[in-house]
Design a protein that fits this description.
Chain B: Keywords: 2Fe-2S, FAD, Flavoprotein, Iron, Iron-sulfur, Membrane, Metal-binding, Oxidoreductase, Transmembrane, Transmembrane helix. The complex is a heterodimer of chains A (193) and B (471). Chain A has two domains: 57 residues; 129 residues, Sufe protein. Chain: A (Alpha-Beta Complex), CATH 3.90.1010. Chain A has eight helices and four strands, in the order H-H-H-H-H-E-E-E-E-H-H-H. The longest helix of chain A is centred in the N-terminal third of the chain and has 22 residues. Chain A is elongated and about 65 Å long. The chains are: A alpha+beta (193), B alpha/beta (471). Chains A and B meet through helix 1, helix 2 and helix 4 of A and helix 2, helix 3, helix 5 and helix 10 of B.
Chain lengths: 193, 471
């Protein structure tokens, strides 16, 4: 029993240590500063000299490290009955849909340095008929404008998502990071659809 | 009974003299040692697996990304979730009776690990649940209760996951020693079997909602492979191995013999017993295939070293099941799972041994005596002289294997036994104590008391081998 106690203490201590290591305020502050002045695009290339590998790792890692669970239907109760497919969400396991009903599938929130991105798609059968963002980075000046650019380029019933029917999107110039997060959230949503 | 009397009446047997006596008639060969290497390797593998299970989280999480308290809580929830998921598999694996584990780690030690890891799993799962709840609630600005509702309603497989937690809490709760001993063994065992439900119910939510596992990729595949491996180990250890064993040996009850008013010996015969890979001190889990008994499986030690004609187990009648064993008819088929246990001569670290047995704990010790190198010493605790079992065989072994035997009779609080089982008392009986392996087998009280005395007398923990039986 003494060993169990040690194990539990060790678990608590190492979990705390891991979280503290990853979330140390020194690095997070450094990562938060750039949005204030630098334009989005240039920043993504010229990684902030904060000494961590965060910016480099962010695009790939963000998809899974978002604080959100992978389940998307939380904000669209209408989508629940259809997206509650019995099988794990692989594209092959999709239940046959009547072509007349549309369903909504939401991607995970993907975090980047400027804020969160979350994409929702509306499908008719297998076809994406609309893309919308439940969340985009908002903030002072530049950030807001880049978010608008992204929204305009990708979203809507005739945006790039619908035209391309996939996550293979051109990066919105100046909004590399946000475009990237958008693609990740979208890709997850499509995978889940 | 007082101390001098114990001594006077105590040393009933023993070789005339270790020095200058006749050479011991060595009947059974002494088995080769099995060092701790295999055990350490397996333990290292399990620990590596634990680190590997948290690695995906570490790689997926950009440094400095946990800005808010809620994000930090969620991250902690994920770590504990991964740890809990992994340890749960380890728990099942340790109880899979996989021959490799039984051989290198041993049933007793696996049992202890299972107990300790079990407590850890329970805490990890509860931490996972509450941290995720708090974290998500914080991220969404919900109350915790609202968030619990959202999780249950809107997320796939979460109802099952909550149910799994409930089952796990029940299993954990009934395994607390005090509660466990208040329950009938069969009921407890049935409840404990429900742990498999935890594995089943908890499976889905890891993949539909697990941040590290929902995406197809090596991590997800690896995690599923881990499940598959554990299920394969279960099938191999609990179905294939026993099936093979029992088809090969086809054990049957040959005779039931009374050893004392409340102890019986069962003699079993079967086929190809010469090919039985059994060491003295090991045990099987026995299932006697009669109407009242077939559904229960109980571990009993084999009370004589392997021979090619029969197997024997000696059992104290303490419960309804053991009482039923008295009435077994010769010819009854027996289903055995084993052999397991590292309480054997093969696990010694020194050439000489001291054995301390209490009550019916003598049975594995008796079997082991046949295989230990000559020069062993045995301290046998019994409440009354009538409780001494197998004394004629012990006398014979004392002669044949040059073994000193002390019978220490009396209740736990009598001055005699108390004196013998103190550091000084042990040192007086066995002066070279610290250079011997010590094998302890008996009721928990005796084992704990002796363990303390031995440690205080300076015996390294690695030289002490335990076989506690739970009543």
């Amino acid at each position: 029993m003494r060993r169990a106690f040690l194990a539990i203490t060790g678990l608590a201590a190492s979990t705390t240590a891991l979280v503290v290591l990853k979330g140390s305020p020194g690095t997070s502050q450094a990562a938060q500063e750039p949005p204030a002045g630098t334009p989005v695009g240039s920043e993504a290339a010229g990684a902030p000299p904060s000494g961590t590998d965060a910016p480099a790792a962010a695009p790939t890692a963000a998809a899974t490290s978002s604080p959100w669970p992978t389940r998307g239907a939380t904000r669209s109760p209408a989508a629940r009955p259809t997206s509650r497919a019995p099988a794990p969400r692989t594209t092959t396991a999709r239940p046959p849909q009547q072509p007349t009903t549309t369903r909504r599938v939401t991607g995970p929130i993907v975090e980047n340095e400027y804020g969160n991105v979350q994409v929702q798609i509306v499908l008719n059968g297998d076809r994406i008929v609309e893309a919308l963002t439940l969340e985009l980075p908002s903030g002072p000046g530049e950030t807001e404008r880049h978010s608008d650019d992204v929204r305009r380029a990708y979203n809507g019933t005739s945006g790039e998502v619908v035209r391309r029917q996939g996550a293979d999107l051109d990066t919105v110039s100046g909004a590399t990071e946000t475009s990237d997060s958008y693609r990740r959230s979208l890709r997850a949503a499509i995978e889940r659809a | 009974m007082t101390y001098p009397q114990t001594h006077a009446a105590g040393r009933r047997t023993g070789s005339p003299s270790r020095h200058g006596g006749r050479p011991a008639a060595v009947s059974s060969p002494v088995p080769a040692r099995r060092g701790p290497g295999g055990r350490r390797l397996l333990a290292a593998l399990l620990v590596t697996g634990l680190l590997a299970s948290v690695l995906p989280w570490w790689l997926d999480t950009p440094a400095g990304s946990l800005r808010s308290t809620a994000a930090a809580l969620t991250a902690a929830g994920r770590i504990t979730g991964l740890v809990a998921g992994y340890l749960l598999l380890v728990q099942v694996l340790m109880m899979s009776r996989l021959p490799v584990l039984e051989r290198w780690i041993g049933g007793e030690r696996l049992g202890r690990w299972h107990r300790d890891v079990g407590a850890t799993v329970l805490v990890a799962v509860l931490a996972h649940l509450s941290l995720i709840l708090l974290g998500y609630a914080g991220l969404r600005d919900h109350s915790v209760l609202t968030e619990a509702g959202v999780l249950l309603r809107d997320y796939e497989d979460m109802v099952e996951a909550f149910a799994a937690t409930g089952v796990l809490v029940l299993v954990g709760f009934t395994s607390v020693r005090a509660i466990r001993s208040a329950l009938p063994y069969e009921l407890w065992h049935l409840l404990h079997r429900a742990s498999y439900l935890v594995l089943l119910l908890g499976f889905g939510h890891q993949f539909s909602n697990g941040a590290q596992l929902f995406q197809p990729g090596p991590v997800r595949t690896g995690w599923i492979a881990l499940y598959a491996a554990v299920v394969a180990a279960l099938v191999w250890g609990r179905v294939v191995t026993p099936l093979r064993f029992n088809l090969r040996h086809r054990l049957r009850v040959a005779d039931v013999v009374a050893e004392s008013p409340d102890t019986i010996s069962l003699y079993l015969t079967g086929e190809r017993l010469d090919r039985l890979d059994l060491l003295g001190g090991q045990f099987f889990r026995w299932r006697f295939l009669t109407r009242g008994c077939w559904w229960q499986s109980h571990p009993f030690s084999v009370s004589a070293a392997a021979n090619d004609r029969w197997l024997r187990l000696t059992v104290k009648v303490v419960g309804t099941h053991t009482a039923d064993l008295r009435d077994l008819d010769p010819g009854t088929r027996v289903w055995a799972q084993g052999p397991s246990g590292t309480f054997t001569a093969a696990h010694r670290t020194r050439e000489r041994a001291l054995l301390i047995a209490g009550g019916s704990g003598i049975t594995p010790v008796r079997a082991m005596l046949e295989e230990l190198p000559p020069g062993a010493a045995l301290i046998y605790r019994a409440r009354t002289p009538a409780d001494v079992l197998l004394s004629r065989e012990l006398d014979w072994l004392a002669q044949a294997r040059d073994t000193d035997i002390w019978y220490v009779i009396g209740s736990r609080d009598d001055p005699g036994p108390r004196q013998v089982l103190s550091p000084d008392g042990l040192r007086r009986l066995v002066p070279d104590l610290t250079r011997r392996d010590v094998y302890l087998c008996g009721p928990p009280g005796l084992v704990e008391q002796s363990l303390r005395a031995l440690r205080r007398a300076g015996v390294p923990r690695g030289q002490i081998h335990l076989a506690t039986f739970e009543l």
